[in-house]
């Protein structure tokens, strides 16, 4: 397998992209392009593209090309100031911009955590660009809204959000060598967030989309591409209801996969399971 590090320009922003190609990938002949099934993986908070480091080799072994990139705020060249720059619509446009820049007409889209929210919106707005969707942990935005309204479980699991959107939360989270962050997130996610402006940019995803009329901001249409929902029963942030109810909003084949004994950090803790479900969803049979 080969891994290529690239930067991709989308408008005023430069994104850090990593492309993986399996060893047995067919070679183009002359100017004729060769189609290679491609998976685009979107990370969430607070991790960058490295959260898929153990998933990617398994997908490459399965004959799939992989694309991972540090999203807005996580790529140093795509870290605008201003909360309004992190509205979900901009995050979706970034994904399409990266696909266009890489000349990828369609991909199988995978998203974890915030990457999952972005992926649902991409699937709703640009179904023609996807062969399928695999959402990890994060259910359809409307299902999340339903779960918040219908029971205390999701409200309790989401109780951390006010701290994230509060003014000055960066200083609190990074104080004493980021002790508060280290209690809840993977250790290797800490260093990138200590870069100038990085944590503010990451928290701005919450500030832009989880204040005011949240339902309107996150409103997402139905999904008309084949979809897999992966949810783990040890998830501290996202409950069963929002995952299971996601099927209501998928007007295509829907598969619900529950992982037992796994916490929220599914790509890091269960990479083989994620790769297996992605490979299944990539198969036309």
TrEMBL record:
SUPFAM superfamilies: alpha/beta-Hydrolases. InterPro entries: AB_hydrolase_1 (IPR000073), AB_hydrolase_fold (IPR029058), Epox_hydrolase-like (IPR000639). The keyword Hydrolase applies. The keyword Hydrolase applies. It comes from the Bacteria. Keywords: Hydrolase. GO terms for molecular function: hydrolase activity. Pfam families: Abhydrolase_1. Residues 37-155 form the AB hydrolase-1 domain. This is Putative epoxide hydrolase. It comes from Gordonia effusa NBRC 100432.
């Amino acid at each position: 397998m080969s891994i290529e590090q690239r930067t991709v320009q989308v408008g005023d922003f430069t994104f850090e992209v990593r492309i993986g190609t399996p060893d047995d990938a067919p070679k183009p002949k002359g100017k004729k392009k060769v189609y290679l099934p491609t998976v685009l993986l979107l990370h969430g908070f607070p991790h960058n593209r490295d959260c898929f480091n153990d998933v990617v080799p398994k997908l490459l072994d399965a004959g799939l090309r992989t694309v991972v990139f540090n999203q807005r705020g996580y790529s140093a060249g795509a870290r605008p100031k201003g909360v309004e720059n992190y509205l979900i619509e901009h995050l979706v446009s970034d994904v399409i911009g990266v696909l266009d820049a890489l000349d990828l007409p369609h991909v199988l889209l995978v998203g974890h955590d915030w990457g999952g929210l972005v992926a649902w919106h991409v699937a709703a707005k640009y179904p023609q660009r996807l062969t399928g969707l695999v959402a990890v942990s994060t259910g359809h935005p409307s299902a999340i809204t339903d779960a918040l309204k219908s029971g205390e479980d999701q409200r309790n699991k989401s109780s951390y959000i006010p701290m994230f959107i509060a003014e000055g939360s960066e200083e609190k989270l990074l104080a004493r060598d980021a002790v508060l962050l280290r209690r809840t997130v993977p250790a290797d996610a800490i260093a990138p967030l200590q870069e100038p402006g990085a944590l503010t940019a990451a928290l701005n995803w919450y500030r832009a989309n989880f204040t005011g009329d949240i339902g309107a901001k996150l409103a997402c249409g139905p999904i008309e591409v084949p979809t897999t929902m992966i949810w783990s029963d040890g998830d501290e942030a996202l409950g069963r209801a929002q995952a299971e109810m996601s099927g209501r909003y998928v007007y295509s084949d829907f598969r619900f996969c529950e992982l037992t004994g796994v916490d929220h950090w599914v790509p890091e803790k269960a990479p083989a399971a994620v790769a297996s479900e992605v490979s299944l969803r990539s198969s036309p049979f």
